[in-house]
From TrEMBL:
Cell location: Cytoplasm
InterPro entries: DisA/LigA_HHH (IPR041663), GIY-YIG_endonuc (IPR000305), GIY-YIG_endonuc_sf (IPR035901), GIY-YIG_UvrC_Cho (IPR047296), Hlx-hairpin-Hlx_DNA-bd_motif (IPR003583), RuvA_2-like (IPR010994), UVR_dom (IPR001943), UVR_dom_sf (IPR036876)
Reported function: The UvrABC repair system catalyzes the recognition and processing of DNA lesions. UvrC both incises the 5' and 3' sides of the lesion. The N-terminal half is responsible for the 3' incision and the C-terminal half is responsible for the 5' incision.
Residues annotated as domain UvrC family homology region profile: 274-495
A family per Pfam: UvrC_RNaseH
Keywords: Cytoplasm, DNA damage, DNA excision, DNA repair, Excision nuclease, SOS response
Protein name (Swiss-Prot/TrEMBL): UvrABC system protein C
GO molecular function terms noted in the UniProt entry: DNA binding; excinuclease ABC activity
Residue runs in coiled coils: none
Length: 622
């Protein structure tokens, strides 16, 4: 692009010439990397919305727009084509600002090859070679049970290699060859017509069409028996029993023999991920479930995430036959392209609906419960992985202070008062060098008169760790008190009195020279100024100080409101808070004109406040 224009202006010039046609657009950065790929019913309108202030975009999208240096579009004949193209391009390029999924190839499938004599075998790799892939299966165990049923029901070989790879020269197969073939029981020797007919039955079972399959097997067994072909009838009987056994294991979830897919999605904001779950119902029976985790979702609404999950599933090679009905847990952001695509694939209209009550809503709730459970497991996995990644600053702090254990959980205390008035204290919590806001505590000093930091520290630590012992809460690895020897001595005394001393390490951090005081040592420890350990302690101490000051200001502000503004007849705390919010302080309220006060809280209230402070001024002047 020309350097004479800023990237934003140059892209906007392209936007003005875009057609009002469906298609796919790709935003690129200066290095040509794709930032985002999307689809649109009208390309010009959709792309232009990114550059309009009224677009209502969140921070993440605004950051992306600033990085846009080029734009590429591909026009399609329909929204349906745009949907397919968008998903294919996203899978290929994996742009930074699109929703990301865990790798499809980690899921197991059952493949039926596109050969003259199709092979049925397990795989984790989906190849666009005309083969059919059934799955993906949530677990290898489920897939193996299906393969075992296929072998028992139809005697079909389910190895992953063809007969041509077998080495009989040494009287034994290669390690990767078909063991059934070596035993001369491989279905590869069957007549082609019989073989294809059996594979057709296998596909019907993989698609969940067990009721019709049972009827056909019954009919075949009856014909063989009437023809006195008792061995063939016995084989069909065994097949029938295996299929029936498999069918009985499937849960009946619909009163009528209906085919439907149910999609549900749950979001966990704490780990910034979502989990999409699919229940596949065929002939009224739940035949399988499938889930995927969605990342890079902070900028999306729930309906957009769910739509992305549904579209990604149906445009993938693992979707299989399109059902009669599709049910979703939330309204999709724009389901028209999806409806059009499903109609084209199935050859007739497919219902896409969000159920509100009845059996379908109950199934959606079950799917949501599964998604919630899977997200919980995912969170535990991430927490476990995070525990293994201990920050360098935590390790160095242990070494610098010669601690007995890693200070992974640090609790730090600080006091705050103004010449002894409104005394408060704070406790902040850091886990693996990061703030843990849910562990923060505020304390109003109750037993100390005047500005006595030592006594205040003693009171706060006594109250905190009495409660920790009583409620059996998590014990920190390290306690930090803001101050030198005096504060540390008061803290140690408090812990001794309540019987908590020795449960964890405790230190004092003095502000002036950043000296670290340790119980039992007369001389402080001086941690090198550039050490990550000292920087961690400073961050912890500064955060405790910030939190204490903030609490103290809020408390003082509330007291000021109560003692001055709320003394005015008819002025409550809500009105007083509004005045402080708009004027900034009580002093500013005193200086405000009658017109300003009345404009803020009304004529009557404004007059009362103005008259009250006007009379104060007059009394002060006499």
């Amino acid at each position: 692009m020309s350097n004479s224009h800023s990237p934003d202006v140059a892209v906007k010039e392209k936007v003005d010439h875009l057609p009002l046609s469906p298609g796919v657009y790709m935003f690129k950065d200066r290095k040509g990397r794709r930032l985002y790929i999307g689809k649109a019913k009208r390309l010009r309108n959709r792309v232009r919305s990114y550059f309009q202030d009224s677009g209502g975009h969140d921070g993440r999208i605004r950051v992306m727009v600033k990085k846009i240096d080029d734009l590429e579009v591909i026009v399609t004949d329909s929204e349906s084509e745009a949907l397919i193209l968008e998903n294919n391009l996203i899978k290929k390029h994996q742009p930074r600002y699109n929703v990301m999924y865990r790798d499809d190839k980690t899921y197991p499938y059952i493949c039926v090859t596109n050969d003259e004599r199709p092979r049925v075998y397990p795989t984790r790799t989906v190849i666009n070679d005309g083969s059919k892939y059934y799955g993906p299966y949530d677990s290898v165990g489920h897939m193996k049970r299906m393969l075992e049923t296929i072998r028992k029901a139809f005697g079909l070989c389910t190895c992953a290699v063809s007969r041509k790879t077998i080495d009989r020269t040494r009287g034994a197969p290669k390690w990767h060859s078909c063991f059934d073939d070596y035993l001369e029981s491989c279905s590869g020797d069957w007549e082609l017509e019989e073989y294809r007919e059996t594979v057709n039955k296998v596909e019907r079972m993989l698609n969940g069409r067990t009721d019709a399959l049972v009827r056909d097997l019954k009919e075949e067994m009856s014909i063989a028996s009437d023809a006195l072909a008792f061995e063939q009838a016995a084989r069909i009987r065994d097949s029938l029993e295996a299929v029936r056994k498999y069918s009985r294991r499937m849960k009946v979830v619909a009163k009528r023999q209906v085919d439907r897919d149910l999609f549900a999605l749950k979001v966990d904001k704490e780990i910034s991920e979502a989990c999409g779950v699919l229940f596949k119902v065929r002939e009224g029976k739940l035949i399988s479930k499938f889930h995927r985790f969605l990342k890079n979702i902070d900028h999306l609404k729930k309906g957009e995430m769910l739509q992305s999950f549904v579209e990604d599933y149906y445009t993938g090679q693992y979707a299989g036959a399109i059902p009669d009905e599709v049910y979703v847990s939330d309204e999709l952001a724009n389901d028209e392209p999806l409806r059009q695509y499903l109609r084209e694939q199935r050859g007739k209209k497919v219902r896409v609906h969000r159920p509100q009550r009845g059996d379908k809503a109950k199934m959606i709730r079950m799917a949501l419960s599964n998604a919630k459970l899977l997200l919980g497991e995912r969170k535990l996995e991430k927490e476990k992985a995070a525990r293994k990644r201990i920050p360098h600053s935590v390790k160095e702090l242990k070494e610098q202070l010669d601690l007995d254990r890693l200070p992974r959980r640090i609790e730090c205390f600080d006091n705050s008062n103004l010449q002894g008035s409104d005394p408060v204290a704070s406790m902040v919590c850091f886990v693996d060098a990061r703030t843990r806001k849910s562990g923060y505590k505020r304390f109003n000093i109750k037993t100390v008169e005047g500005p006595d930091d030592f006594a205040s520290m003693k009171e706060v630590l006594s109250r905190r760790y009495k409660r920790v012992m009583k409620e059996k809460q998590q014990i920190p690895d390290l306690i930090v008190v803001d101050g030198g020897k005096g504060q540390l001595s008061s803290a140690v005394e408090a812990l001794r009195e309540i019987g908590f001393y020795g449960e964890c390490e405790i230190i004092g951090l003095a502000k002036r020279l950043e000296e670290v005081f340790v119980p039992g040592k007369s001389q402080p420890i001086m941690i090198p100024k550039k050490s990550s350990a000292l920087k961690l302690l400073q961050r912890v101490r500064d955060e405790a100080h910030r939190f204490a000051i903030s609490f103290h200001r809020n408390k003082r502000s509330k007291r000021t409101i109560k003692t001055e503004l709320t003394e005015i007849k008819g002025i409550g705390e809500k009105t007083a808070q509004k005045l402080l919010s708009n004027f900034g302080s009580v002093e500013s309220v005193k200086k405000a004109t009658l017109e300003d006060l009345q404009a803020d809280i009304g004529n009557t209230m404004g007059r009362r406040v103005f008259d009250y402070f006007d009379q104060q001024k007059k009394r002060a002047s006499h």
